[in-house]
Amino acid sequence: MWLKPEEILLKNALKLWVAEKGNEYFVLQRRRGYGEGGGGLTGLLVGTLDTMMDSTSKVAPFRILHQTPDSQIYWSIACGGTKEEINQHWEWLEKNIMRTLSVFDSSDDITSFVQGKIRGLIAEEGKVSGVQEDDPEKFREALLRFEKWFDLPQKEKLVTYYSCSYWRGRVPCQGWLYLSTNFLSFYSYLLGSEVKLVVSWNEIWRLEKTSNVILTESIHVLANGEDHYFSMFLHLSETFLIMEQLADYSIKRLFDKETFQEEPSLSDPLQITKRGLETNARNEQFRAFFRLPKEENLLEVYESFLWVPFSHFNTLGKICLSESYLCFASQDGSQCHVIIPMREVIGVEKPDRSSRALTVCVRGKRALRFSEVRDFERLGNAIRRRCGMTGIRGECQNLINHFEDNPEEVAMMVGQKESSKTVSNEALMTVFHPQDAENLDPKMLKEKMKEQSWNIHFSEYGRGTSMFCTKKTRDLIVRGVPEALRGELWMLFSGAVNDMAANPGYYSEIVDKSLGTSTLATDEIERDLHRSLPEHPAFQSDTGISALRRVLTAYAYRNPKIGYCQAMNILTSVLLLYAKEEEAFWLLVAVCERMLPDYFNRRIIGALVDQAVFEELIRMHLTQLTEHMTDLTFFSSVSLSWFLTLFISVLPIESAVNVVDCFFYDGIKAILQLGLAVLDYNMEGLISSHDDAEAVTILSKFFDNVTNKDSPLPQTVQQNSVGNNDKASSLSKVDISDLIKEAYEKYGDMKSEEVERMRKRNKLYVIQTLEDTTKQNVLRVVSQEVKFSVPQLDNLYALFKRQHFLSCYWTMNSPVLLHHDPSLAYLEQYQLGFHQFRVLFSLLEPWSLCSGNDALFLWAFRLLDENQDGLVNFKEFCCALDILYSGTFTNKLKFLFKLHLPPDDHCTHDHLCLKTALSTGKGKVDLQAYLKQWQDEILKKEESIKDLPRINQAQFIQFSKTLYNLFHGDPEEESLYRAVARVTSLLLRMEEVGRRLQEPTSPTQAAPEGALLNREACSTPERSSDTPCATITLEAGSILQEVEWSFAFEQILASLLNEPVLVRFFERPVDIQARLDHAKGAQLKAKTNK
């Protein structure tokens, strides 16, 4: 059968295949162990492995690979179970493909053509067979096995499953890999040996493809400090994609909630499907490549040729259609791509049915001709429908005819630009540095030459939103964009022009709403306004400061999850220099929400991820530096400002804008390339440096000496963003254009797709590192308050955190998830609601204290939740357990006593643990409340038992019941029961005596005395375990109607201290480690109610 073309990595694999036949472009191979000869020992090994595999994992014995001349890269395109089947595929290739390949000049074009043909064949076979992607019957059987083997909650949604091998050391275990919404699970049973593995997606640190000596590729998973390797011969890329999507979804939903955007296909964790994950991955890739708004989704894809007028040839590529855009990218993506907003389309024609061609006419007298479109009629109808067209327009046909009659005018016509709506303000550079058209110095003449080069480019490739982007466009970017065109091109390449066109009037509206508001973000903005390019004349006047204030305040109003973050002011200042105010706002939106995701929040996760990618690239490209400096964390710390400000904070302004040019065209790839070039340029100095301080000095001096010899900016503006120029003047100058050119020449082969994969891979590690830092800070604080060992606290934290997540796994509306905020204090990041607390507390408390009694769980939760927000944090939870496990007899009894007090009696006391973080509203921390809390903690005194309120008769009865329940199953159960009965009788007698002394003539004296006799009777050994409780309850009913009595804590404590058996029980050590081990195994199985 034909296979979706996949690259075959043969670098480290054993020679498991033998070539049967081949030619210049294809090779037919037979797997060793099949056919003639058997292949000796290697063939025997391969045959044995294949026999062990089940039917879905066995490798077909024959395959066909595609290879271009002078290339070591192979692509699998077909496989077969028999020689006859594979020979049929081979003959088809010879008859239908071989003749065509000879006309191509480029090996890349040959590979693209072969891949396109194979995908077309697969699509045709799929239409004919009509087979469903997933067999419902097989999936149902797999679901039953999944539920039986792993005993997870029934709500857990199985997404898909694969047959694979799990490597334990050097021995593979053949079994089944199950991928569900929240867990990665594996099961194997072979020769009486059972292997079962369950890993939560939120516990994974690393997820990557690797290769080893035995197998070509495998999937490596690092979780909880353990490495897991899974290998499979089929569907490896598909499996890895699903695993990557599930891990990323879990990380976003559970850890990174402030930037989590609900996708329609992923909004409900109970409805996630394999198809939905694959669709989400395609949409993300589509939006990232074409820089489209997050609302756009890839709806349809068509393979076709596009007539490129400036090159006079057809280029093979794909048409990608979304709700509002028609996009085209050549097969490799780098030759050319074009984005056509549907609002720009004025007509669609089908001039040549025989060539299956389609012509799209856009504003500005432009036309794009697509040919060899498999379903061109459907595509034409889809475009018309989205543009609101009812038929074919004569204007479009006349334009096409004119092009055919006058081909020399095509270039002139596509160069016309649609007039855009003007706004009331201007770019600050236009106001504060207007160009003098009469007195042109050499720099201005060179600037005009740059503008002329771009105008020629516009005339050939078009101008505006539907301009062709090619390698020539990148070459012009690298040389530097003219000052007059910078704002326009930034808007175009970033995609911000589409955001602004789709939201007319939006900026003015939110400016009116946001101005005058007072928030934490606006306070920070006001503080930083005068720190933004302070030496530039534009920001020494109210004009520039006011514009900066409006843009930053408007964005904080638009996106309160980000609000305002330092470095946004520096970036926005530069944007305002070259773009109009509204344009600068939409550029900021594009940077913060698309191009640099997760950069501008409290944890700057995006910047940390890109720094991890930068470290990885340093290891790949600058091996000499890594050999000298094994610890690359120095580069992470020193390069943070490079990423956050796009080098604006370290380079002179006239040089930094050239970096911003490249960033808006190539994204983060441009910053990574430039960072590598900077380190490479300073390689010798960095290697010879003795410490980090000397290395920082070397880089600082280098940046001070980066110049832009072509910049037309006046000297009053140049070099003002950095200092120490006198010291740096003795060093050689480096021109920014040369530096950028060197970066592209040395590291330009880096693909954006690979950078995105590295981002995803490192994001898991970065977030888990932040989580580990949070854990260490929490444990450091809590360890000072409790007697648990560090390993025990570590285990407790893992259980607490998992219980927090268990409440979030199967719903999007969990109160715990809604309250989770990574920006809060460490102790407040993970908290438990009542139902989650009940489950975990029942697994860990030492005496089955609350077993079968929901009221006691509620009282315990109420006691720990001192700020009454319905949540308990880790410190409060640990302090309670510490009392129960390691507290003195008095402290344990005091805890039980306070359980039975009503909320009003103890909520004002601070006896158990420190108060939790205070807040004045969701997400807004009250710093004054924090300061007051810290002051109270410093001045607080040890709680005295005399401060505790008295317990009334109903509470005392319940307290007695609680004591009886503690002893169930204890070896000294009977002795303990009798001791409690004696204590209760003694307390009641003491109370009665006190009343007689105070009221000697009371007519109600006889009632309590009779009640005491009945209570003494309940202490006989013949009574059942609940007899004392029943007797006390009955007697209390009659007493309640006649006499109100109560006890102080000192009375109860003194009475219980007189019973040695009770003292021994409470002071008996309990094995906390055994309880922790039991909780680990039982936590997932425990019922967690909503």
TrEMBL record:
SMART domains: EFh, GRAM, TBC
GO MF assignments: calcium ion binding; GTPase activator activity
GO terms classed as biological process: glomerular filtration
InterPro entries given in the database record: EF-hand-dom_pair (IPR011992), EF_Hand_1_Ca_BS (IPR018247), EF_hand_dom (IPR002048), GRAM (IPR004182), PH-like_dom_sf (IPR011993), Rab-GAP-TBC_dom (IPR000195), Rab-GAP_TBC_sf (IPR035969)
Pfam families found in the cross-reference section: GRAM, RabGAP-TBC
Any one annotated GO CC term: cytosol
Protein keywords: Calcium, Cytoplasm, GTPase activation, Metal-binding, Repeat
Domain of life: Eukaryota
Main location per the UniProt record: cytoplasm
Location in the cell: Cytoplasm, Cytosol
Ranges where the Rab-GAP TBC domain occurs: 480-667
Limits of the EF-hand domain: 852-887
Gene3D superfamilies the UniProt entry points to: EF-hand, Pleckstrin-homology domain (PH domain)/Phosphotyrosine-binding domain (PTB), putative rabgap domain of human tbc1 domain family member 14 like domains, Ypt/Rab-GAP domain of gyp1p, domain 1, Ypt/Rab-GAP domain of gyp1p, domain 3
The protein's role, per its UniProt record: Involved in vesicular recycling, probably as a RAB11B GTPase-activating protein.
Subunit structure: Interacts (via domain Rab-GAP TBC) with RAB11B (in GTP-bound form).
PANTHER family in the cross-refs: PROTEIN VASCULAR ASSOCIATED DEATH 1, CHLOROPLASTIC, TBC1 DOMAIN FAMILY MEMBER 8B
Protein name as catalogued: TBC1 domain family member 8B
GN (gene name): TBC1D8B
